[in-house]
Each structure stands twice: as C-alpha cells, then as structure tokens.
Amino acid sequence: MPDKRRVYRDFEGGVVLTAEQGGKFLAVIDEGTLADLLPEELERADLVKTIEFETEEERSAYLLKRFGPRSQTNL
Question: Measured between alpha carbons, how far is 57 from 63 in angstroms, rounded to an integer?
C-alpha cells in the first residue's frame, strides 16, 4: 500500500495524487468521476492510472508539464 497519498491537483473529472511505495515515487491519476458519463461498452475502462518514477524530481517534472503546478490548497 502506498505511503502518504497527497492530492497534487484536482481537475475536471478527477484528481492527481502523489505517493511513495517501495522506494518509487508514484503519480496516481484518478479519472473515476467520469465513470457515470461513459457509454456501457467503456464501463470497464481503466480510469485510475499509476505511473512510477525513480526520483521525486522526475515525478515533479512530469506533473508540472502535464498538470501545471501543485494546487495551492493542497500544499
């Protein structure tokens, strides 16, 4: 189980979390709030993705590029 999950940023349809597990730095992208909007054939679509990074710096660079800076309310 990941250690200390923290909200990085909310976005329309989901949330981005950060965590650490087994010496890896994780970004968890949860788009589960979109599930009700999907057609039946896509009901089982993978709405939660976990991406592993070797360093915290790599994870931070990825998140900044893809989602922008950490939400100030989530510091």
Answer: 10
13-72: per-residue pLDDT in tens? 889 999 999 999 999 999 877 666 777 766 656 788 999 999 999 999 999 999 999 987
Distant-in-sequence, close-in-space partners of 33: CB < 8 Å, separation ≥ 6: 13, 14
Per DSSP, helices labelled H in the chain are: 56-67
* Alpha-carbon distances, residue 75 vs 7, 11, 26, 71 (angstroms): 8, 16, 17, 7
Beta strands in the chain (DSSP E): 3-11, 14-21, 24-30, 48-53
Question: What predicted TM-score, i.e. pTM, was given to this entire model?
Answer: 0.78
State the virtual CA torsion across 6, 53, 58, 35 in degrees, nearest 10.
Answer: -50
Determine contact, residues 34/14, Cβ cutoff 8 Å: yes
